[in-house]
Design goal:
By secondary structure, the chain is α/β, with parallel strands linked by helices. The protein has 7 helices and 10 strands. It has 2 domains: about 5-80 and about 155-260, Rossmann fold (3-Layer(aba) Sandwich); about 90-155, no CATH class. Helix content is about 35%, strand content about 25%. Helix 2 (about 95-105) runs parallel beside helix 4 (about 140-150). The protein is globular, with a radius of gyration of 19 Å. The termini are far apart.
Length: about 260
Amino acid sequence: MPRVRIQIRDLSKTFREGGREVPAVSRVSLDILDKEFVALVGPSGCGKSTILNMIGGLITPSDGQVLINGTHVSDVPRQVGYVFQKDTVFPWRSVARNIALGLEYRGVAGLEQERRVAEAIRLAGLAGFEDAFPATLSGGMRQRVALMRTLIVEPEILLMDEPFGALDTHTKLRLQAQLLELWFAKRQTVIFVTHDLAEAITLSDRVIVLTSRPGRVKLIHEVKLPRPRDVIRIRETDEYAREFGALWHVLGEEFAKSEAEP
């Protein structure tokens, strides 16, 4: 059996805004296994990103705890990489220099840095754009740069906060396929936040459905689709339709609750 990589225990977060308390997450508990790809879905404002930020040490929980490899998370863990919805590339650095940034921070230089950057550029399909600057790239290309900048330092855990949410459908599907190829090769533990149920099913081993705010775990669903997966053809199968129908019923209830809230 795979070992447990991340333990989340009774995790809660309440924000204070203008003298009032806003509960975002309430008593979330779950285990995430080594090399597992897990998606978090739920209505807007249900605390998906807040949970991700607490796992990554960017936000302090109001209650409960997160453990990575059995160690309590109190700061940004070194073994965690983060990919945000916004591509966060630096406009004054070329593609190659953006991707190299994490290696620079870790003291990797010279021929080793050049080798790893060249391999990342090849894997991302960015050959020929090494010296290009972000202003000349498409949104999908910039997101690939941001993804490879994170992956190049070989994090054990990859946190992804709607990284493809702002992209058109064709670009999104292409990046989903590329992400699955990279994950299948490296097998990091991935936690992927998305509003897109189809994306969650296509990519993940398990889908965690959260309730409307404050977010609680409503359903932990194991995706039974075989791997490797073709991100386009898999959506044409009866098995995919069954997965989608089972999850949509549960998620739709929470969407309805969210819409009914004042």
